[in-house]
Design a protein that fits this description.
8-stranded mixed beta sheet, 280 residues, homodimer
């Protein structure tokens, strides 16, 4: 795979890492970064993530053979629709958003002929932000979920999959709804839980936290605006995951209430088995 | 501080790390490890955590100037009471258990004259077990909470504090009940939450987890028997912490139900502020 111009919309941790990976793997003749702040773009270029920078979204996407939108999930669909009209036939638009159904459905049927959008979600990232945290190997061995809609052209889906594979990812295809339901539990609920736990820490107990509290709440340091948008776009699946979690908490509470060591042991042993199977 | 014989009861991650730290800091002329399995003791000695090993608990504690109990929390009080009768006047017994009130109250008034027990909890550890994970620097810069009862002699408390400081710890004095209430929230609740989250992961979604899920559930890999004992010993404070956590989850649920972005933003921003203040 060799792309003439790869446009990266939003050059933070994810966008910057795509740029670093694409340049180190010589995936594109030119990596063009677009964003709202010249300073961030300059920083990303200085770090080696971009060849060129641009402040005009439509102009940057128009030049792309492949454009990847790494902006907050509540901006992606609008940006895709607004910029697609200027694109040449054959252009592939994709994204890195953590929710998929709202984006894919909003874009569906609103693109010019020959321009395709293929929703994608690379399962990589961290609680950190900004191109200074970008890494060329962020995607190596990670999974990218590719979520075509019913009308997404098959060649565009294949191209999107090749793009993420070329960055080092493994690829898995799911419907946008399947993705959102699974990620509500594997990603969005953990964020909610971490934030709820961090949120109830009394200030005077901060010194009494150790690695357990710190690991369990680490992702609560993520950007509130980004996560608010994710929660709102994936409300219903997140509420369902939260119900499931509260039911499990009830089982722990009932075991504690009843001083039932056997029930606690069963719950803890089952959880350990699941966690052990995940590895580090 | 120079101890003639330091006896370590239970030579796993914590006991082994105490041995490594004591030996590398030349805190004791002799570090004697006691446990139930010769194989584990031999392993700990081979790793440099012990000078000598012993399978007889009473005999090992009898030789101690300082003995530290690193056994599961539901065994500590019984072991302390059983072994104290053989100790010389001036012997200091301490422990590393994650709960304090049940242990301190059970021991209180049941020791021979001149033998003191000072409850302690070094806030260090991990989900791993066994002397092979012990580290000489496990306690460096970490906090140990020392929890005297009303009748604990002041010189023994001071000696216990010196002991933990000599291992590299900072020391903070709290009542056993204060400790248990605070740790219910900063340590025991996170374990329960991590286990509840790991426990509801559908097997088919394991591949869709990334660092967020893994960080948040890491401690769920801890030993179920150890944690069952901790939960049962600290039931009431853990139930109170769980209520507080569920109330916070309710606020997230209500915000999601109402599609209330501002409320979500407030909750997430407050959590981020708390988490940012903790550092890594």
């Amino acid at each position: 795979m060799k792309i003439e111009t790869l446009t990266i919309v939003g050059v933070g941790l994810i966008g910057g890492s795509i740029g670093l990976a694409a340049r180190s793997r010589r995936l594109a003749a030119r990596v063009l970064g677009v964003g709202r702040r010249q300073e961030t773009l300059d920083q990303a270029r200085a770090l080696g993530a971009l060849d060129e920078t641009c402040l005009d979204l439509a102009q940057a996407v128009r030049q792309a053979e492949v454009a990847v939108f790494c902006t907050p999930v509540d901006q992606i669909a609008r940006q895709v629709i607004e910029t697609a009209s200027g694109c040449a036939a054959g252009t592939l638009l994709t994204d890195a958003g953590s929710t998929k159904a709202a984006i894919v459905r909003a874009v569906e049927g609103r693109l010019p002929d020959g321009v395709a959008f293929v929703g994608s979600h690379p399962l990589a990232g961290s609680e950190k932000r900004g191109p200074e945290h970008a890494r060329a190997d962020l995607f190596e061995g990670r999974l990218t979920v590719v979520t075509p809609g019913e009308t997404t052209p098959a060649p565009a889906v294949a191209l999107a999959e090749s793009f993420w594979q070329a960055l080092g990812c493994e690829v898995r295809r799911m419907s946008p709804e399947e993705h959102d339901e699974a990620l509500a539990l594997t990603s969005h609920l953990p964020h909610l839980v971490a934030a709820a736990l961090a949120g109830i820490l009394p200030p005077e107990s901060a010194g009494l936290t150790a690695t357990g509290f710190r690991d369990t709440t680490r992702i609560a340091a993520g950007d509130p605006a980004l996560w608010k948008a994710i929660f709102l776009q994936n409300r219903v699946p997140v509420l369902a995951a939260l119900r499931k979690f509260r039911d499990r908490l009830d089982r722990f509470r009932n075991a504690l209430d009843a001083d039932d060591g056997e029930a606690l042991d069963r719950l803890l042993s089952q959880a350990k088995k699941v966690r052990d199977a995940l590895g580090n």
